[in-house]
Structure formats: structure tokens, C-alpha cells
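Lab notebook, page 48
Experiment: co-folding of the full assembly
Goal: obtain a model of how the components sit together before planning crosslinking
Operator: M.T.
Materials (sequences as entered):
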Amino acid sequence: MQSESHTIETQAVHAGREELADWGVHALPIDLSTTNPLPDIEAGGHSYETMATGGRQPAEGSAVYARLWNPTVARFESGLATLENAEAAVAFASGMASVSAALLAMCTGQNKPHVVAVRPLYGGTDHLLNTGMLGTEATYCAVDEVSSAIREDTGLVILETPANPTLELVSIAEVVEQAGGVPVLVDNTFATPVLQQPLDHGATMSLHSATKYIGGHGDVVGGVIACSEETAVQLRQVRAVTGGILHPMGAYLLHRGLATLPMRVHRAQQTAQQVADWLGTHDAIDQVFYPGSDSESAGVLAGQMRGPGAMVAVRMSGGYSAAEKLTSGVRLFTHAVSLGGVDSLIQHPAALTHRPVTPEARPSADVVRLSIGLEAPEDLIADLDRALS
Ligand SMILES: *Cc1c(COP(=O)(O)O)cnc(C)c1O
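Observation: model returned without errors.
Model output:
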């Protein structure tokens, strides 16, 4: 069903659903079996070994056990891999379970504990690296310092673009070049494959908190990494052994979310540009962070993205107290962490998502982040206008 000539909009609707018609069904089935009948001892043992060492699918007609493989999850992975132009994808229980699996596979498990981390990163990722809880040791740096930060024992370079929360763009190709063969992981949560496909720019892994845009409706926690089949084997092995699996119900919802992902992202992006333009004219706003309004981002934006996305941040002229007033004054926006859903959210990164980040890397207290949803732009602007006055 897929072909090179299909656009991402078409792929989003059809990818990972290839076998459904053969079974006489139209909607995605949910398989909740925790265990699977074994044809015989030999075949069962062989299949177990295949899955526990990261094989793509069960060997001889039995998936054995649901921590190793599940067809509903595998279909979602296949769909997501298509959208990312990747050979494979591996799904996890959350975005952070994905980050953990990547660190275990590339660093701890290879005896290459050093990680080069391009800041700014999602607060949870920054925190995980900073604690060294998984046996890793992080060097934080800017884009142009990556090559000098690489060591013999560097297992992974990690970056996020657009970055959280100030929407800075990082050139993936530039980091890949500086990494000189060390695997590069790009957190693609904010852009989604609709706007950016990191593997096309040389990245080894494209990671999502699928909790955000991919699910899109604020009702499922999940994570996924798109990569080569070779890397997927390593990630699946970590997943089978450590157990950070995605539940089939979550996989079903995420796969369902893929179908509308391009439409949601494009529409929210259109609204975000209008909201960002309006915010830029308001006295209460000192600065708007939005790649679509920032001339410094234009080069990287044109080189690796198909649009600036739907996340906007602002610096309040009135500092923290103005940020407090805005977040508690809105009615249509919900004051809540997370992002990428059908409804608009507003939050204060320094006090919430970036609270565990060390003070020198924490966003300043006058910054507020907005996730623009699918409401009409005029209604969102009216809500902000009321809260700002
Ligand atoms: C939310 C988020 C994560 C963590 O994902 P969870 O699903 O919450 O574990 C990682 N990276 C980015 C950019 C995020 O926004």
C-alpha cells in the first residue's frame, strides 16, 4: 500500500494497516493476550530467544509473552517508522522510558558511559542525565562545542530541536558532522515527523514522547524511537530485558492518533503563527519565542523543517508576577504541563517542567510556554487578551 510517492498525509492514514483487509477487518485490532500458546517446546524456546535478543518478530508462530512482542504495538511501530522514513521503530511505556532505553543500549550496555548533551533539553532528560542514575556521565555543551566534547568513551550525542521551552533550533546535520560517527539521538517530540525527519539528516535515532502530538488527545502516555533495524535490535533487547513496554491499548490509541497527525499539526501551526504575531504586538510581552517569527532560525528552519510548529513561548515584560497572572487568568487555555493535544495548554517552565534542571540551565522565571491546539485563533487570542489586561 505504501509507496515512495505517497505524501505523509496519505501514509499517516494507511501505514501499519497493510494486513487488516486480509483479515476482513477495517479498524485496528487490539490484542490484549499476555501469553501466547506455544506450538511445541522447541519452537517456543526458539521464539523466546529471538525476541529476548531483539528480533523483529516471533520466529515460529508464537509471540510467547507480551513483554517480548505484541502485534498491536508492532503495527503502531511500523506506522511510525514509515512516517519517519525509518527502517524500524521501537515503542516504550513513555518518552522517558525511551530515553532510558537509548542510554542503556548505547552507553551503559556498551561500556561507553559518556553522553554529550546539547542544551537546552526537556527537563526530565536533563535531570536523568544530571543524576547519572543509569551509569552515564554527561557533558553539557552548545552546538559548536560537540566535537571537542566527544571522548573515546562517548556512547551518545543527544539533542532536541525545536528545544524545550525556548524553541531554539539546532542543525541536526551540523551536530551529526561534529559527532564524527558517535550515534546521535534527536528528540523530535516538538516537530513530529510531519515537520522534521531527523534520520534524513544523519541522526541515528528520532525519539518521541508520543504522549504529546502523536497521541494528540491527552489520554495516553507512550514513547517511541525510529531508527535503523540494526539499532532497533539493541533497543528491543533492552526493552525485553528491562520491561519498559507500551501497553497494547496505548499502542492502539497512538496508531489511531497517527491518522490525523498531519492535519492536526498543520492546523495548530497555522494558528500558532497568528497567535505569535499577535503576542509580538502586545505591550505585556517582551519577547516571543517562535521559530516562525525569528530571523535567526530561518536558515535551520528552511534546511531541515517543513514549518515552525505549534509551540510558542513568551517573555513577560512584567516578570514572574505577570507570568503568574497570565497562567491563572486564562479560561480557554488550560494551565497544565504537557503539550501537543487538540486543546491549548499554558505552563510556566521554570516552576514546572524545568524545575529539576540546574539553575544555570533553567529557563528564566519570566518565560511562559504555550501549546497551541485546534481552537479557532480568534478565540485563543481573545482569551490571552483578557488574561493580559
Ligand atoms: C514530555 C517530553 C518528554 C518525556 O516524555 P514522557 O512521555 O512524559 O515520559 C521527552 N521529551 C520531550 C521534548 C517532552 O516534551
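Interpretation: Residues 262-388 form a domain with the Aspartate Aminotransferase, domain 1 fold (CATH 3.90.1150.10).
Next step: discuss with group before ordering constructs.
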